Amino acid sequence: MTDTGDVSDSASNFRLVERMLPYSSSIFGVTGARAVELNAINLGQGFPDTDGPQLLKDLACKAIQDGSGNQYPPAHGMPALREAIAEHQERFYGLEVDPGTGVVVTTGASEALTAAFLGLLNPGDEVIIFEPFFDLYPAGIALAGAKHISVPLRIVDGGGWHEAATKSRRGFRLDLEALEKAVTPRTKMILVNSPHNPTGMVFTRTELESIAQVATKNNLIVLSDEAYEHLVFAPAKHIPIATLPGMFERTITVGSGGKCFSFTGWKVGWATGPAQLINAVRVARQHMSYVSGGPFQEAIAEGLRLPDSYFAELVASFKAGHDQLAAGLMEHGFEVFQTDGTYFITTDTGPGHENDRTFCDRLLNENGVATIPNSALVDHEDLFPNYVRWAFCKQPEVIDEALSRLPK
Ligand SMILES: *Cc1c(COP(=O)(O)O)cnc(C)c1O
Question: How far, in Å, from the CA of 332 to the mean position of ligand 1?
Fold first, then answer.
């Protein structure tokens, strides 16, 4: 039997709990499986097609050979990695976190997020998320029996990090009024994702200050998904919301070793913050995976201590992929939205202005290029009828081949 990743048919869902029914299929699983079937170029799923540093591979192999981390590591993460995470937060952002009580190592950023939902939300609590969203958020919030409230990002002309630019492209920005209106007495948490997947936008300091004000005024927890913290293109800059005045105490910051080091299969992530919040994540998480792979933790600890040149080269290589794909898409008549980071570009559906799902299906089935329709990542489909996410974390030849397959 082939695993299509699609578990949405009603026969297989006969026993699935009701609150998970809306999440039974994942657009990434379905698109990825179809791409394999068709031997298509997969610009749908966001994984780099070039592995991270050889040094980290060697360290992981050495740790296995030396018997370091082959048996259950400590539940909240190996001390060496927790210290490296704390050092990293201090080195890049001046954030002081306690490696003893303020850090937890997780099975990818994914588990940090789900554990935060399970450890901090009561049934019926509301979590504000920005739309379009990473598909794990609504599903993880539903696992906790809580409810997500999606606040659409606004499409505006220029602005953001490019205020001064003479020729500006349209981009996605915070809609503060919509955020303020979304808060109810049941709101417990705001989930901030910057750099933002799928749009590639990066929240400015002003936007983060506005979110911080809403959180403070309503006494909300902030869960900040910073998986792409090292993939930000100048002049944009990554600003952890925990660095804003008074925000550390109410913020859980989530990071991903997979995204920082181009090893998305290793699944080492983390959460940092004040002891009270991190403890809630730890309690839920220790009953999920209990621990994450020991030898990979050793290697990621060294990765976090790599010199600045590593992080500069990482972002430069992805920026090159971005520039190549953006230029090619513009040549083909697509509107390319401003991208300030991540692995992704957002466009419209081109000259035909088709519905995004129709466009993506046709592009995959007829042209052999997989992409993701944004309407699969929203609640308000009417607001996002024809936007498409393209991954540029691919080798130049692959991007070229994808471009050559596009309809002329
Ligand atoms: C990839 C991704 C994650 C998950 O990271 P893992 O470390 O692979 O679990 C979380 N949030 C966003 C926005 C992502 O794109």
Answer: 30
Give the up-direction half-sphere exposure of residue 42: CA atoms within 13 A in the CB hemisphere: 18
- Tell me the pairing of strands 269-272 and 187-193: unpaired
CA of 227 to the centre of ligand 1 (A): 6
**What is the β-pairing status of strands 269-272 and 251-256?**
antiparallel
Whether the pLDDT of residue 162 is over 90: the answer is no
Q: Is the dihedral of CA 375, 203, 104, 269 positive or negative?
A: positive
Burial of 109 (0-12, 13-18, 19+ CB in 10 A): buried
| Nearest-angstrom CA–CA distance, 322 and 200 | 10
User: Which ligand 1 atom sits closest to the C-alpha of 196?
Assistant: 13
Ligand 1 within 6 A of 193 CB?
yes
* Cβ of residue 378 lying under 6 Å from some atom of ligand 1: no
Ligand 1 contact via 248 beta carbon (within 6 Å): no
Q: Residue 226: beta bridge partners?
A: none
Any ligand 1 atom below 6 A from CB of 31: no
Ligand 1 centroid to Cα of residue 110, in Å, is 6
Task: Give the residue, out of 27, 47, 110, 288, with the most ligand 1 atoms within 8 A of its beta carbon, to mutate for a pocket test.
Answer: 110
Token pair recorded at residue 397: 């030849």
Q: Report the chain's mean pLDDT, rounded to a whole number.
A: 95
Q: Which two tokens stand for residue 123?
A: 């049934």
Token pair 């990621």 is at which residue? 300
For 307-366, what is each residue's pLDDT tens digit? 999 999 999 999 999 999 999 999 999 999 999 999 999 999 998 889 999 999 999 999
> What gap in Å lies between CA 45 and CA 30, rounded to an integer?
10
d(CA 24, CA 26): 7
pLDDT in tens, 184-203: 999 999 999 999 999 999 99
- Phi/psi for 255 (5° steps) reads -130, 165
pTM of the model: 0.96
CA pair distance 103, 109, nearest whole angstrom: 13
Helix (H) or strand (E) holding 362: helix 356-367
Q: In the 8-state DSSP scheme, what is residue 267?
A: -
| Closest CA to ligand 1's atom 15 | 197
Q: What does the pLDDT look like over 18-33, one tens digit per residue?
A: 999 999 988 998 999 9
- Residues composing the chain: 408
Which tokens sit at 235? 């002049």
- Residue 2: pLDDT band (50, 70, 90) is very low
